[in-house]
Amino acid sequence: MSDSLDGLLLIDKPTGPTSHDVVQRVRRASGMRRVGHAGTLDPAARGLLPLVLGRATRLVRFLPASPKTYRGTLRLGRATATDDETGEIVTEHVGPLPPALQVAEAARAFLGLQLQVPPAYSARRVGGRRLYRLARQGVVTEAPPAEIEVMRFDLRATADPAVYEFTADVSGGTYIRALARDLGRSLGCGGTLATLVRTRIGPLDIGEARSLPEAPDRRWVEDALIGLDQMPLTPPPVRLATDESTRRFRLGSAVLPAGSPPACELLRVLAPDGTLLGIAEQRTGELHPKVVLLPVRPEEREQS
What does the pLDDT profile of the chain (304 residues) look like in tens digits? Predict the structure, then answer.
């Protein structure tokens, strides 16, 4: 059994633990120090949480970040400090709530590119400090808005006039809590996120994710792991023609691709046998290594 586990692990995170808690559990199970996550989920949310192990931690930025698909429920008629049901109630609406047709029309206004202010209790940094840490200390801080895109925001009325089910497709960096908050503000009644499940990130689907046991072991991690060569990275692939080109790439030298590569700045570089070697930047027809996953060993350096 190899000492190193390298690849992608798709977890269906339950409500309760933080994303970091899940990472720590997988670290203990796998014996791997290098474990990270791609795309944080709040403790109260559940759903798809991609983890990367070993050398795959160097490929996080090349994993698909959007669109992200969420489903859940939101509640109109109140606003909370955290923009979800876990926070202290700040305001409660008095009187009738807007009718369903008005709510649906207001939701359509959030489609497209826009600027979104992150929740006061979020992991976004301001001045090098996390917003949630400042909020817990009573420091009122509003982060600068970030550009996001909402591709879908479908609402469905329920038997409770305050509660709506929703499905949303959004860009990376979008806070669904803030979307519920802003919808409530636009309607003049307040709004909070009640429940949330992330079902998809780009091609990654919750149907492929594993429920995390209370006490997973290394064998469980090995069985669930998606290897480096099967990871759905965003740069398109290009294959090298010779073993010598492979050796030179592993040394960090620029190489020529086999055939005509896709016209992209970044490419996923494969050895002649299909092994993933790393990520390269394409410049003037050459592949310049940006991430090398398999550097050469000292005894290989002098081989021709």
Answer: 357 899 999 999 999 999 999 999 999 999 999 999 998 898 999 999 999 999 999 999 999 999 999 999 999 999 998 999 988 999 999 999 999 999 999 999 999 999 999 887 666 665 656 655 655 655 666 678 889 999 999 999 999 999 999 999 999 989 999 999 999 999 999 999 999 999 999 999 999 999 999 889 999 999 999 999 999 999 999 999 999 999 999 999 999 988 888 889 999 999 999 999 999 999 988 999 999 998 766 666 655 4
Contact 112, 157 (CB under 8 A): no
Task: Check: CB of residue 46 under 8 Å from CB of residue 12.
Answer: yes
Give the total number of structural domains in the chain: 3
CATH number at residue 117: 3.30.2350.10
Could you confirm whether 154 is annotated as catalytic?
A: no
**Catalytic site residue from 12, 42, 84, 182:** 42
Distance, in Å, from the CA atom of 70 to the CA atom of 176, rounded to the nearest integer, reads: 8
Note down the domain range covering 178.
Answer: 68-199
